Amino acid sequence: MVLKNSYRAFRALIIVAHIASPFAGIHSALAATPPAGHAKSGPMISKALDALLLPINKGVIKKFKLDKGAHGVLVLSVKPGGVADKQGIKPGDVLAEVQGHKVHKPIDVDVAVRRQLKAGHSDMSFGVERGGAVVAIAAVVTLESYNEAIAVSEVSSWESDTTESSSSYEEYVSAESTEIETSEESEEATVEEDLTQDESADDDSSDTADDSSDDSSDDSGDEGGDD
Question: H-helix or E-strand containing 181?
């Protein structure tokens, strides 16, 4: 009887804990059902937006009561006065598109923005799912703001989308701090790798065009000799 009562008490505590914190169980939900084919399955700080982004899967859809067909990444929090905050991107928004391209994981956002910046453009377009509708947001992101360092320790104080006490979000960030820090460290390398691949593709296209031009010149010369 004592054992049974202890079990019931423990179970009640677990249930209460999950009700009290909207962020409870997110890590296990992500681990249980990671997005298919996506390398990153955890939260990531977006240098482009000064926001904490979370990949969307069934567990996240259920936890945050998103539309079942939601795709993209969830804006979990934004830095007060940061890029997302200034441009009207809010906690709870779902980033579905950047520059007309679909977003599948957090890193997609920064890759698309960094690509624009490298081309000399600071005007960005985002497709945001909010309240069942898609909102088009035109934003300005500068290379200076993109390169600004963000300390993982400050993320816990950012504005988050929860009606519960802020400690729930703070506890979540604290529990995930190692993963957030790891994703931040690998982000720059991932972005640079994508940009390098773009350059390689451009070089290949240029070489192909040069070869075609050379072939055309040779053909023209041969025809003249026959005459």
Answer: helix 166-226
Give the pLDDT confidence score for residue 185 in this predicted structure: 62
User: In 57-165, which residue ranges form alpha helices assigned H by DSSP?
Assistant: 58-63, 83-87, 106-118, 143-146
Please tell me the pTM assigned to this model.
0.69
Q: At residue 92, what are phi and psi to the nearest 5 degrees? A: 100, -15
CB atoms within 10 A of CB 195: 15
Q: Which two tokens stand for residue 194?
A: 């994508």
Beta strands, E only, the chain: 44-46, 51-55, 73-78, 94-98, 101-102, 123-130, 133-140, 159-160
Residue type, 45: I
Name the residue among 64, 48, 159, 44 with its Cα closest to residue 98.
48
pLDDT along the chain (227 residues), means of 10: 49 42 56 42 87 90 85 93 93 92 92 92 93 89 91 88 62 79 66 66 56 56 53
